[in-house]
């Protein structure tokens, strides 16, 4: 011990004046904590100091609720001290150091160097060591939340920090009298499809199933509730579960307990002064891991808990009949994989997915491709969607025996289990083979195309675009199905306000559900006079023929006197503006995803502009008109509507200006002159928004720029374009790629339409590394022409993001 720490040590024990009488939540370098002294968090919720469990004469450092009796300890430092002569200090390098007599018996690790470290107990129950001036939780030198004991408090993470390889897991106390780490823990096993388990050493006690996008597979009744909100975060840096308090008055905690072998959530009953068990697991026999063996399924309402899956029988009927189910079940007809094509799948509904130890996941493919992949590998025993949100997406496959399945009543997920074809019936088999053959051919062709022509991975390529065009431009002379009003009225619950999902330039958008269960989006347009019904229908039919994977599909239409209703496919993932301008969502949208979106929009727009029979100018391209599907592919919506209304105007000037401030090309906004180049302008703006995560029309006062374009331009000229990149994508992007995109956007928003590239060149520029021209000064309508455009009054301009539907030009 050096002289300084000796002095502190002596001072701490001998000078009672240092034993503060008023509650403090922080200690500094020169201060210390000994037995009898505590830190109290600012709001008085938690207390930190030494404690002794009942029936124990040992002393521990811990955190407990300040105002709850019996003392409820939520965190404890592992080492016990035999007497009350220990001292806790923080030293210059930011380590908490616990000294007993002359020895350091416990200290915290610290990866970073400290200048002026302080120890503070926060109101969340988190004890942190931080630089005195530091407020960013990510930069804490140490925090108790990173080292959970047997309790998870709101805001604590359970899972893995993939960057550092640190696990956040809850470990039980040995016993109520002994807080040292016991044998039980609650943690996430990092399989390809990760799962939380209650473990006893290496033995699995129970699992709640993998996260399926909505909830853990084994807890289908997990629902939003007034006590706590749960969150599951998975990205390249971290994967964890956490929960937050919904209501500040509710005190709840999650605790793992070795004595009772449970993990339970408690809620503090203020009036009755006790901890009520809100939920506890295992809650029934079916929760115990592997209760029914391989291919057995546990049914809590069954005559006996365990049953064999359909077309399976007990492996040992003798044991099974004595209620020893652990050996599980075997197939009635064993698989014989000499001919893969002979196999098929049996759909089992309403289950908790099997143990995921041997799984493989691909989030980018759907159920059909998943099936083919599974069929093609003899050890693949089952598959299903990895994410059940919406229609379901992603693929998970199981290899080897299927363990720990549980059957739910009415809830639960679908699982497709491999079976010999003879178990499935001939017809099915035939269909199976056809699908397999077709999809295999398609995959091979796809791979060939991709392999031969995709030179730059992750970029738009010409072949992509050609392929899409061929697919999209197919001559399909079927008339657009007309549906009658009653169908739509039923589907939308008579245009109930509850079903309204949007408001576009020409009318309201409703969500609907057909009797068949299919979800649709209905756009209700108000027709203006001056156009005959026949022309009107013809236009709609023409528009309906436009099909491209980056365009929202028009399914049907309905004409009723003054109303026309367009029925579109329904997109679950909302519109682009709700992803890029939302703090949480934007974090999940890394650069490769954003680039994919940019390319998709470019392809869709190219298709609209280039389709030989029908050149469509969108006129209102903006983030809220780009819908995003489950796979994060963009689909342009609202295309052709201007045309439906405008009749035979194809290009030129219009009496009606349709568009949105912030996206409108100057010549269009001011003079009503539109062309494919005004769409290119809007596309340029959209790209800038995707890259910066900022709205085109926002306030950029600190930069002395009235809007995003002028801001981008001024940074570009100063060679500081990097500064406009959304901080959420800094980690996931190659700067040169993003800079190239900014460059392309600036070319798109040049003031003079003739300087702007057309969409084919835009797509080429995005997909290659060729030299780009220097952009000229951008045009921006608000910047240059506010005064010069009497047609637009001040109060309309102030409405952000509203589509201007009918604005008569001078
Ligand atoms: C110990 O027991 C006493 C009385 O039974 C109780 O008041 C106190 O809260 C208990 N302490 C702990 C840590 O359980
Ligand atoms: C506490 O006492 C036990 C036995 O009485 C001894 O083994 C242990 O080393 C002591 N611990 C400390 C920190 O002094
Ligand atoms: C602080 O304590 C840790 C752990 O005992 C030790 O490694 C480190 O050197 C100490 N730093 C100083 C400045 O004493
Ligand atoms: C665990 O459960 C037992 C029995 O329900 C209870 O007595 C004990 O206080 C709980 N807590 C700990 C830390 O063991
Ligand atoms: C598998 O099937 C092939 C032909 O369908 C047959 O010749 C072979 O004996 C079978 N093997 C087993 C183990 O049943
Ligand atoms: C089947 O999948 C397993 C697990 O991914 C893999 O190890 C094996 O090589 C695959 N077999 C074939 C024939 O692809």
UniProtKB/TrEMBL annotation:
Entry EC number(s): 2.7.11.1
Domain Apple: 337-421
Keywords recorded for this protein, A-Z: ATP-binding, Cell membrane, Disulfide bond, EGF-like domain, Glycoprotein, Kinase, Membrane, Nucleotide-binding, Phosphoprotein, Receptor, Serine/threonine-protein kinase, Signal, Transferase, Transmembrane, Transmembrane helix
Residues reported in the UniProt entry to bind ATP: 523
Gene Ontology biological-process annotations: recognition of pollen
Bilayer-crossing regions: 433-457
Domain (Bulb-type lectin) ranges: 24-142
Keyword Membrane belongs to the record: yes
Bilayer topology term: Single-pass membrane protein; Single-pass type I membrane protein
Chain ranges of the Protein kinase domain: 495-772
Catalytic activity annotation: L-threonyl-[protein] + ATP = O-phospho-L-threonyl-[protein] + ADP + H(+); L-seryl-[protein] + ATP = O-phospho-L-seryl-[protein] + ADP + H(+)
Signal peptide residue numbers: 1-23
Localization (cell): Cell membrane; Membrane
This protein's GO CC annotations: plasma membrane
Enzyme category, top tier: transferase
Any one GO molecular-function label of the UniProt entry: protein serine/threonine kinase activity
Keyword Cytoplasm included in the entry's annotation: no
Recorded family membership: Belongs to the protein kinase superfamily. Ser/Thr protein kinase family.
Official protein name in the record: Receptor-like serine/threonine-protein kinase
Originating organism: Cajanus cajan
């Amino acid at each position: 011990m050096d002289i300084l720490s000796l002095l502190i040590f002596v001072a701490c024990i001998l000078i009672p004046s240092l034993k503060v009488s008023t509650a403090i939540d922080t200690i500094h370098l020169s201060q210390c904590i000994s037995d009898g002294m505590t830190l109290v968090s600012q709001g008085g919720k938690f207390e930190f100091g030494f404690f002794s469990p009942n029936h124990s004469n040992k002393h521990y450092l811990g955190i407990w609720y300040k105002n709850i009796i019996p003392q409820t300890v939520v965190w404890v430092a592992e080492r016990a001290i035999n007497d009350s002569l220990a001292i806790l200090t923080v030293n210059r390098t930011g380590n908490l150091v616990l000294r007993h007599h002359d020895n350091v018996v416990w200290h915290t690790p610290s990866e970073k160097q400290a200048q002026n470290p302080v120890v503070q107990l926060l109101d969340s129950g988190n004890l942190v060591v931080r630089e005195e001036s530091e407020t960013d939780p990510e930069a804490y030198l140490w925090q108790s939340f990173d080292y959970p004991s047997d309790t998870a408090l709101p805001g604590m993470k359970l899972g893995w920090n993939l960057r550092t390889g640190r696990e956040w897991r809850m470990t039980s106390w040995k016993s109520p009298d002994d807080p040292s780490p016991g044998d039980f823990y609650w943690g996430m096993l990092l399989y390809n499809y990760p799962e939380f388990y209650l473990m006893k050493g290496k033995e699995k006690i129970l699992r709640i199933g993998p996260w399926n996008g909505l909830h853990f597979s084994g807890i289908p009744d997990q629902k939003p509730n007034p006590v706590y909100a749960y969150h599951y975060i998975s990205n390249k840096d971290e994967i964890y579960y956490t929960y937050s308090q919904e209501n500040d008055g509710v005190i709840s905690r999650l605790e793992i307990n070795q004595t009772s072998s449970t993990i339970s959530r408690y809620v503090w009953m203020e009036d009755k002064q006790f901890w009520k068990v809100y939920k506890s697991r295992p809650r029934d026999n079916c929760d115990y891991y592997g209760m029914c063996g391989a291919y057995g399924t546990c049914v809590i309402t069954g005559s006996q808990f365990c049953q064999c899956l359909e077309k399976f029988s007990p492996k040992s009927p003798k044991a099974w009949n004595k209620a020893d189910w652990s050996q599980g079940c075997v197939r009635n007809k064993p698989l014989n994989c000499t001919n893969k094509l002979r196999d098929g799948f049996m759909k089992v509904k309403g289950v908790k997915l099997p143990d995921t130890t041997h799984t493989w996941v691909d989030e980018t493919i759907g159920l059909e491709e998943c099936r083919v992949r599974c069929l093609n590998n003899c050890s693949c025993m089952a598959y299903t969607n990895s994410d059940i949100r919406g229609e379901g997406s992603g693929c998970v496959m199981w290899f080897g025996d299927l363990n720990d399945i549980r059957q739910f009543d009415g809830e639960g997920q679908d699982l497709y289990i491999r079976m010999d074809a003879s178990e499935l019936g001939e017809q099915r088999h035939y269909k199976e083979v056809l699908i397999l053959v077709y999809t295999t051919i398609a995959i091979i062709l796809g791979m060939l195309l991709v392999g031969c022509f995709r030179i730059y991975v992750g970029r738009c390529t010409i072949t992509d675009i050609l392929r899409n065009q061929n697919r999209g431009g197919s001559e399909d002379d079927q008339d657009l199905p007309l549906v009658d009003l009653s169908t739509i009225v039923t589907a939308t619950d008579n245009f109930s306000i509850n079903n309204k999902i949007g408001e576009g330039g020409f009318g309201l958008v409703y969500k609907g559900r057909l009797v068949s269960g299919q979800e649709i989006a209905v756009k209700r347009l108000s027709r203006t006079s001056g156009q005959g019904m026949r022309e009107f229908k013809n236009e709609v039919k023409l528009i309906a023929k436009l099909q491209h994977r980056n365009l929202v599909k028009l399914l049907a239409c309905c004409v009723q006197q003054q109303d026309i209703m367009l029925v579109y496919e329904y997109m679950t993932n909302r519109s682009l503006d709700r992803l890029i301008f939302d703090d949480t969502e934007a974090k999940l949208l890394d650069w490769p995803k954003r680039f994919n979106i940019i390319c998709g929009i470019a392809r869709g727009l190219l298709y609209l502009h280039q389709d030989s029979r029908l050149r469509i100018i969108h006129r209102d391209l903006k983030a809220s008109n780009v819908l995003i599907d489950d796979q994060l592919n963009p689909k342009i919506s609202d295309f052709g509507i201007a045309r439906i209304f405008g009749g035979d105007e194809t290009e030129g000037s219009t009496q009606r200006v349709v568009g949105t401030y912030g996206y409108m090309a100057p010549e269009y906004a001011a003079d009503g002159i539109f062309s494919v180049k005004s769409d290119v302008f809007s596309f340029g703006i959209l790209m800038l928004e995707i890259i910066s995560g900022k709205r085109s029309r926002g306030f950029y006062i600190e930069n002395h720029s009235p809007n995003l374009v002028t801001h981008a331009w001024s940074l570009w000229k100063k060679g500081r374009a990097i500064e406009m990149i959304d901080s959420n994508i800094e980690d996931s992007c190659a700067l040169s790629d993003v800079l190239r995109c900014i460059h392309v956007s600036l070319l798109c928003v040049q003031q003079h339409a003739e300087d702007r590239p057309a969409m084919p060149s835009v797509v080429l520029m995005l997909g290659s590394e060729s030299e780009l021209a220097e952009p000229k000064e951008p045009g921006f309508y608000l910047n240059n022409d506010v005064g010069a455009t009497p047609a637009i009054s001040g109060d309309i301009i102030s409405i952000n993001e509203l589509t201007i539907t009918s604005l008569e030009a001078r």
